[in-house]
Write a structure and sequence with these properties.
- The structure holds 2 protein chains of 2 kinds.
- Chain A is mostly helical.
- Chain A has 2 domains: 1-61; 71-293, MetI-like fold (Orthogonal Bundle), CATH 1.10.3720.10.
- In chain A, 83% of the residues lie in helices and 0% in strands.
- In chain A, helix 1 (4-61) packs across helix 12 (255-293).
- By secondary structure, chain B is of the alpha+beta class.
- Helix content of chain B is 22%, strand content 33%.
- In chain B, the strands form 4 sheets. Chain B has a 6-stranded mixed sheet with strand order 6-7-8-3-9-10, sandwiched between helices. In chain B, strands 11, 12, 13, 14, 20 and 21 form a 6-stranded antiparallel sheet that branches. Chain B has a 5-stranded antiparallel sheet with strand order 15-19-16-17-18, with no helix packed on it.
- In chain B, a hairpin with a 4-residue loop joins strand 11 and strand 12.
- Chain B is elongated and about 80 Å long.
Chain lengths: 294, 380
């Protein structure tokens, strides 16, 4: 009874050790590369997915069919219609961004502060542009602001009509970005603190709420700007030669030129993103950098 | 520095009455605490005073001036919020300076005042730090400094210590009191922490269900509560049902024994009363001694160590008494050094000292099936 027991124990122990060893041996080599390979594959795949079309576009655009040439690009850039369209687009984009922020930021603040009850309604209203096709929006804009306007204003010939339309179109992005930032800080408490120190509403908004939500507001501005720069349907239907409309027109007659402009527009967007990111870091980074330092 | 008067403040939220007929005058330089369980209306009253809520009826008067209709930013009061509400984008110094900037004080004067505040609150070394870099205590002091920098007429403190750890809390509450006395500022402190209210207030307003239960100095509130709510909310209290035996003689009767009790003269003969005795006022009867007044006999159930004192929870009645309603828990504090004499299970006799017993009227709603109830938190 006593004799075999240690033997059994040793054997069992030995087996167990072997089993563990085998398991380790099996797991270690398989799991490590397995784990690091998949993300790498995903990254490479995503990179190719994004970059290959760009390379293809660039190689198509900057060529005369056989050789590399910058001619399509320089031709396109020299086209006065290009200048007009890009100026119009940028102007409308800047104006829309300014108008959007000026309307959306205080609205979002007041909803959080005073009109919590309509918050759900606002959430619903601001995503409507996702659901309503631009063609409906165009018809609506024409009805309200066109020649037969019940308001008595004919804005169809003014780019202001586009600003109004784009304000609505970019609302899902702008409102959400700003509203998220408002939710991230305790707007009500900070407002009360500011009021208890004697500040009025404007002062509170400018000195406390705006700096606290700046990053959200910057990203809202960025989203609004890029949305407007790339919008085609509304401008085309309303008959404005914005940059995307111009691109579409050129594409029919000179596809290489149009394609080279696509590359340019990519670069403009990237530059915009970069600029806003830098501004954002500088503005919101004062505190962040200090916090990091400590 | 100011005298604050609240007259008949009533506030409803929908069907809920948050505050009802709140009347209080806070004297110049006085610190008054609003104490009560959550939902008793203390915070609403403070917010009405601050101007964040407006009363349905009643008025708020500061130094003789009716400010009921004024918005918060024109009341000239200072407030320390529960979560401090420091501006995250401003350094400690900028937070303190904010109110001065709003008041358009000249730069030189502002800087001087900020430096003074930083110095006073021991924050000079963290002046340039942002709220997220400050410790809880430093944030609390910054919030306090920010509120008093503008020399407010009244300082409102909304549970200012609830976000600090227990250890720092005691230290900070003494500091709040010290600063309040030093600045001579009129202040209201809202708290659900009775120790906080009792330790640093000139007067305590005990609130329940939107009404003032009782106003008094901390020692009055603790030693001579006038309502059962106050008695049970503040500290640990033994409550015994008694009958007023003789109003003129100041006698009450319990279990057939008649004895003197303070307050019996205020109640009609034959009416029910509640006899209130703090655990520390009860005394175990030494063997062979013959105490004057009533004696409670029972067995020790639990000992709770409280430091210098140990609290014994004694179940009254004999082992034969199996009725649930008949069993009564009585708390009695004994010196910890002597607590070994009454281990759990030991028999004990407890005397109710005549002078320590006070009797108050029983409200119809307060009638309970058990004759004696130990209420309130274990420690004080």
């Amino acid at each position: 009874m006593t004799a075999p027991t240690p033997g059994v124990a040793i054997e069992a122990g030995h087996e167990a050790t072997q089993a563990i060893g085998a398991q380790n041996g099996r797991q270690a080599p398989r799991s490590r590369p397995g784990r690091s390979l998949l993300p790498a594959l995903i990254i490479v795949g995503a990179f190719l997915y994004y970059v290959l079309p760009l390379i293809a576009t660039a190689s198509f655009a900057l060529s005369d069919g056989r050789h590399f040439t910058l001619a399509p690009l320089t031709d396109a850039l020299g086209d006065p219609a290009f200048h007009d369209s890009i100026t119009l687009s940028a102007g409308i984009a800047v104006l829309t961004t300014i108008v959007s922020i000026l309307i959306v930021a205080p609205t979002s603040y007041l909803i959080v502060l005073r009109f919590r009850r309509i918050r759900t309604l606002m959430d619903f209203v601001t995503i409507l542009p996702f659901v309503i096709p631009p063609i409906i929006l165009t018809l609506g804009l024409r009805q309200v602001y066109g020649a037969d306007s019940p308001l008595g204003v004919d804005l169809v010939d003014s780019p202001l009509l586009l600003v109004a339309g784009y304000f609505v179109l970019s609302l899902p992005f702008t409102y959400r970005a700003v509203d998220n930032a408002m939710r991230a800080i305790d707007v009500v408490l900070l407002t009360e603190a500011s009021e208890s120190l004697g500040a009025g509403g404007l002062r509170t908004f400018r000195s406390v709420i705006l700096p606290g939500t700046l990053l959200g507001i910057i990203s809202a501005a960025l989203l609004c700007f890029t949305t407007v720069m790339g919008e085609f349907t509304l401008a085309s239907l309303l008959g404005y030669a914005t940059f995307p409309v111009f691109l579409n027109n050129v594409y029919a007659s000179a596809p290489r030129e149009a394609t080279s402009l696509v590359i340019v527009s990519f670069m403009i967007t990237w530059a915009g993103v970069l600029a806003l990111a830098v501004v954002g870091r500088r503005a919101g980074g004062g505190t962040t950098a200090l916090r990091r330092a400590a | 520095m100011a005298r604050l008067e609240l007259h008949g403040i009533t506030k409803r939220f929908g069907d809920q009455v948050a505050v009802q007929d709140f009347d209080l005058t806070v004297g110049d330089g006085e610190l008054v605490s609003f104490l009560g369980p959550s939902g008793c209306g203390k915070t609403t009253t403070l917010r009405i005073t601050a101007g964040f809520e407006f009363p349905d009826s009643g008025s708020i008067v500061v130094n003789g001036r009716d400010i009921t209709a004024l918005p918060a930013n024109q009341r000239g009061m200072g407030m320390v919020f529960q979560g401090y509400a420091l501006f995250p984008n401003m350094s400690a110094a900028d937070n303190i300076e904010y109110g001065l900037k709003v008041r358009k004080q000249p730069t030189q004067k502002r800087r001087q005042r900020v430096a003074e505040m930083l110095e006073l609150f021991g924050l000079s070394h963290v002046a340039k730090s942002y709220p997220s870099q400050l410790s809880g205590g430093q944030q609390q002091r910054t919030a306090f400094a920010r509120a008093v920098a503008v020399e407010p007429s009244v300082l409102l403190l909304d549970e200012p210590l609830s976000a600090v750890d227990a250890k720092v809390r005691e230290e900070l509450r003494t500091e709040i009191r010290r600063m309040q006395l030093r600045l001579g500022i009129t202040a209201i402190l809202v708290t659900h922490d009775q120790a906080e209210a009792l330790s640093i207030s000139d007067r305590v307003v005990v609130m329940s269900q939107g009404r003032i239960e009782e106003v008094g100095t901390p020692s009055q509130i603790y030693a001579e509560p006038r309502s059962e709510f106050t008695a049970s909310f503040i500290g640990a209290m033994n409550e015994f049902r008694v009958r007023i035996a003789s109003r003129s003689g100041g006698l009450v009767e319990r279990d057939g024994v008649q004895f003197e009790a303070t307050g019996a003269a205020d109640l009609p003969d034959g009416s029910d009363g509640l006899l209130l005795v703090r655990p520390e006022s009860l005394e175990p009867v030494e063997a062979g001694a013959a105490p004057v007044g009533p004696v409670i006999r029972g067995r020790v159930e639990v000992q709770t160590f409280l430091g210098s004192q140990t609290r014994l929870l004694v179940r009254e009645g004999s082992d034969l008494d199996t009725s649930v309603h008949g069993s009564r828990l009585v708390a009695v504090d004994v010196p910890s050094a002597a607590a070994g004499r009454w281990p759990p299970g030991a028999e004990i006799a407890i005397a109710i000292p005549i002078r320590a017993a006070r009797v108050i009227a029983v409200r119809a709603s307060d009638l309970r099936s058990t004759a004696a109830v130990v209420t309130g938190p274990q420690g004080r």
